[in-house]
Amino acid sequence: MKQKIAIIGFGTVGQGICEILLKKSNFLKTKYQYEYSIVAVADMVYGNVFNPEGLNIPTMLEQAKARQKFTKDVTTMDNVTLIKECNADVICELTFTDLKTGGPAIEHCRAALESGKSVVTSNKGPAALKYAELKALADKNEVSLKIEGTVVAGTPVINLTEGPLAGCEIHKIRGILNGTTNFILSEMEKGMSYNDALKVAQEKGYAEADPTGDVEGYDARGKVTILANIVMGTKLDISDVSCKGITSITSAHIEEAKKQNARWKLIGCVEKKDDGKILASVAPEMVPLSHPIAGVMGATNALTFSTDLLGDVTIVGPGAGRHETGFAILTDLLNIYKK
Ligand code: HSE
After folding, report:
1. Does the Cβ of 329 fall within 6 Å of ligand 1?
2. pLDDT, tens digit, for every residue of 13-50?
3. Exposure pattern of 111-124 as b/e (b: 16+ CB <10 Å)?
4. Taking the alpha carbons of 230, 134, 76, 332 in that order, is the dihedral positive or negative?
5. What does the alpha-carbon distance between residue 217 and residue 282 come to, in Å, rounded to a whole number?
6. 3-class SS at 246?
7. Which helix (H) or strand (E) holds 243?
8. Domains by residue range for the chain, with CATH
9. If you write DSSP's letter for every residue of 121-155 in order, what string do you get?
10. Do 46 and 63 touch, CB atoms closer than 8 A?
11. Is the peptide bond between 292 and the residue preceding it cis, with omega within 30 degrees of 0?
12. Atom of ligand 1 nearest to the CA of 178
């Protein structure tokens, strides 16, 4: 049976997952017998559309590229009504991240789960601020809540810890958790100005809708909170994570690091101490070039999990981007379909 999907937020990631599904439909059908139909899309720029038999996604992608509103299957239903009333099995919540209130994404997730629909999201708002409540709602309604795309895009992190690393206890997670800032720091080292590097990061779809979230460290702080609560089982509030971004790093700092055989990286860390105390932080650090993390450049991220049974396990991969994050949505959709 086809998986019926609704996409809430047709921005970088929303369009990215649609492009992937179109491009890989034959592969997905042959390899996993996976078939899908996108029945609803909601977007504050392009409008809300619904067709229970499936929308014309190629035309919608062209319209979005031309910054034109959708013209076919237009509905007057607002987002929450559409989520509740449409015939989707899975709602992909891909609106902008708001790490202060979580809105409007939390409301979208609640509406989906309450109406018996699974949720897949790369939105850090619901995951960092309300995961426990939303997971309880998902369990109560016997549906799934999948959030792989909230941390390090499609590079497996949440699924890695819940799958292959499931038998390990993880007492520390440390690494580069934001693609935009790692890209900016990498480009500044090559001589580009901070402002130009940020502009390129925005053009490439790495940065948040409001890039303050990246450069001030708030995006990485959201991810540290998600990792602490979901992977390490703590009860951390986002405000418990100390946070400093990269806005104070100048070309002079970068030159100074070079002289010291080091490189600036924005490092996120959460650690469970022996006495049970949790330490969590985001801050720029001068990392010696001899350290493996120092060689991770551009929008690539890297995370080291310190475990009881395996010691340190490090994963390196894309941390941001249209198809890189779209891929995370695909893995969650497939996992729900296989259930
Ligand atoms: N803006 C984020 C980053 C996107 O640069 O890492 C992925 O969460």
Report:
1. no
2. 999 999 999 999 999 999 999 999 999 999 999 999 99
3. bbbebebbbbbbbb
4. positive
5. 7
6. coil
7. strand 242-243
8. 3-154+322-337 (3.40.50.720), 165-318 (3.30.360.10)
9. E--HHHHHHHHHHHHHHHHHTT--EE-GGGSSTTS
10. yes
11. no
12. 6
Reference 266, options 287, 280, 250; nearest CA is 287
Substitution site in 12, 98, 150, 178 for ligand 1 pocket (most atoms within 8 Å of beta carbon)? 178
* Token output for 254: 């970068």
Q: Is the CB of 179 under 6 A from ligand 1?
A: yes
Q: How far is the CA of 149 from the centre of ligand 1 (A)?
A: 10
* Ligand 1 atom having least distance to the Cα of 220: 6
pLDDT in tens, 154-200: 999 999 999 999 999 999 999 999 999 999 999 999 999 999 999 99
Quote the CA–CA distance of 114 and 64 in Å, as a whole number: 30
Identify the band that residue 338 occupies on the pLDDT scale cut at 50, 70 and 90. Answer: confident
| pLDDT of 57 | 98
With a cut of 90, say whether residue 109 has pLDDT above it: yes
Cβ–ligand 1 contact at 206 (below 6 Å): yes
CB 332 near ligand 1, within 6 Å = no
Query: Which candidate, 334, 333, 330, places its Cα nearest to that of 23?
Result: 330
